[in-house]
Amino acid sequence: MVAFMGLFAFAGLGAILGLSDAATTPSPSVEAAPVDTGAADLADHIALYEQERTRIDELSTALEANPVKPLVALFDWMEDQDVKMEDPNLTAYAAELVADQMSTFRADLEQSITDAETRRANASGSVSEGLIDAAGNGFIDVQYDAATTCKTREGYTVTGCVKGGSPLVVHLLPDTERSEWHAKLTTVHELAHVYQRADDVRYPDDDGGYQALLAQGLFQGSEEVMADCYALTYLNEWTLSDGVTEAGYGYICGDSERQAIRDWAAGMNAPVG
Questions:
Q1: Are 181 and 208 in contact, with CB atoms under 8 Å apart?
Q2: Helix, strand or coil for residue 271?
Q3: Among the three residues 102, 119, 136, which one is the final residue of a domain in this structure?
Q4: Mind listing the pLDDT tens digit for each residue in 5-25?
Q5: Count of domains observed in the chain
Q6: Rounded distance, CA 235 to CA 229, Å?
Q7: Could you list the residue range(s) of the whole structural domain that residue 68 is in?
């Protein structure tokens, strides 16, 4: 009887309060949904990108009118990144990738500028290093290791080269192993190859710059002969011999080709003597 009355009383209380069985059953705990931070992250990545982009623009003034600017950093690449960042469907993840790449680009450019400032001192005091430092304002390096680095040619002494994988490094024989005349001629010849590589970046489809000149038949259609002509024009020479040794590829370019060299060099901001 007591038990029955207790149950009745409990049921009556529930009825009085208007509670159903379901309402009095404990519900499982529910965790709050995570806050979507995508928009905030996207804004942060865009802000970093713009910060790095501004800094790169400031740094790039050190390369204005420098003939090797296209080789120091791929500035055209930045324009492609600008397009990506302006995409209305840009995600936070994609923005983060581009911003990180821009940070790396900026850091590499800063290092290149620091290295160039150090090189301008002409540490060796040599004729060849002086020419190279002046030509690229320190952004072109020189290493006196041509004997071990450059490809050999049977019957010839290879005095210098520029390798495709590192076009901002000129490899030469030490000046002490060449006459001053020969050192100047071969150094300027190799500088012409550096400028040709910079031109390749400007015209990746080989439809302009020096490639167009070679296609017209100038310089016997040869990069090497063109480099000789650049050196002859730069030094105002009409011979590839110092009276003791021969240099170059045996062809002396004439006035019309020398004018073509001057015009090409002007377009590259490259010095011509």
A1: no
A2: coil
A3: 119
A4: 333 232 333 333 333 444 434
A5: 2
A6: 10
A7: 48-119
